[in-house]
Design a protein that fits this description.
mainly beta; four-stranded antiparallel β-sheet; 4 strands; about 10% helix
Amino acid sequence: MAFDGAAVLGVVHDEEGEWQFLDDPAVDMGDLTIVHLAHVVAERPELGTVGDLPAGFEAWFDGHGGWSREVLDDALDP
C-alpha cells in the first residue's frame, strides 16, 4: 500500500479537490503515490474523521487523537 507503515500526520484537501495524506510537512515529490480515496480510508479508517475537510483546507494530527484544521496558506481566492 502507499503508506508503507508510515503514520499519516497531515491531510490536505487542495483547491482543485485533490487529497494529500502526509507523514511530514516536507514533501518529497519522488515519494508521491496516487491512490483512490476509498483505498486510503479502507486501509486507514481513522482518516474518515477528516473526510469532511473542505477544499482549500489542511488538517494536522494533534498527537492527542484529534486534528487541527486550518485554511491552506496558499489557498486560491474564490
